[in-house]
Amino acid sequence: MSAPSRAPAAESTHMFQEARSASKAVRAQLACDAVSIAAIGAEVRRLAPRVVITCARGSSDHAATYAKYLIETKARVLTASAAPSVSSVYGVAQDLRGCLFIALSQSGRSPDLLAAVAAAKASGATILALCNSPDAPLVAAADLVIELRAGIETSVAATMSYLATLAALARFVAAWTDDSALNDRIDALPALMDASWALDWSAALPLLESASHLYVVGRGLGLGAAQETALKCKETCGLHAEAFSSAELRHGPYTLLGPGFPALLFAQQDATRPGVEILAAELVRRRVEVLVAGTGVSGAIVLPTLDVAAELAPILLVQSAYRLIATLAVNRGFDPDRPPHLRKVTETV
Fold first, then answer.
1. Which of 120, 162, 161 has its CA nearest to residue 143?
2. What domains lie within the chain, and their CATH numbers?
3. What is the DSSP code string of 318-332?
4. Is 131 helix (H, G, I), strand (E, B) or coil?
5. 102-141 pLDDT, tens digit each
6. Cα angle, residue 146 at apex, residues 144 and 151 outer, rounded to 5°
7. How many C-beta atoms surround the C-beta of residue 2 within 10 A?
8. Could you tell me the pTM of the whole model?
9. Contact 130, 148 (CB under 8 A)
């Protein structure tokens, strides 16, 4: 990918400004949607779905990864990702009676997503849509709707709407499982997001400015954060980045890491954290350049994070990563608002 001849100052980009403003969307959700989300939670408890199916593309699919781990650990219901092409291309109907089908989309207009939703509804699923466009066809097609309230995003790289999706998913799962402790933690989320935005991750810049490849690693609740960070590095920075589970990394990809091929590791305070720490220490011993956020590992570049519950950590990790990436893009000569060959609304069949 070739860089443009001139890049704007990072702080002046829409990506930087929109990512910084993501807490406003969460504040709007908290101010407006308590009654409706409580009702949705009660309806899903009544439904008692045998399976939850998520359907999304791009950044929204990374939010779906977060939803999978949150639902499976909190509601203890099997959650799997739908392949939209099964209905939109192959035209195959599935038996989805008694299932909750969660469609996540910023625009709510992609033809393959809409085809998957229509097929799921015809097959007996209850449709829950999380969408940033109240007038979108997806909203009209859904049985239950959670509005993201991120407002208009100008940058092609979605930031506000992604973080708003994670917050909405956390609120939905808290309502479904009647988890008052999680609800209380979510009430503090906007202030935590503002504090996370202010954290200084600039120690990562010298390493990433010259890198050609990067692995971003997480596990469990943090895997979606790794996926999202890797995507944003690719689309806005011209940096080839791939996301892996810290367990999956050992099944082949591990061999590529070495001098000149760094790794960024995310950790949160749950049962996955020791494994991430062990991996980070191993990579340091192999002389891999390691960046780590969410824990401290000797020999790695440690990026500052807030001490929060595991359910909220992925939201804050991505918030800090967005600021780093917006700056990194500009430092590498790119305009993060206008990635080459991409459009704001991607329509696939």
1. 120
2. 14-188 (3.40.50.10490), 196-331 (3.40.50.10490)
3. HHHHHHHHHHHHHHT
4. strand
5. 999 999 998 999 999 999 999 999 999 999 999 999 999 9
6. 145
7. 8
8. 0.93
9. yes
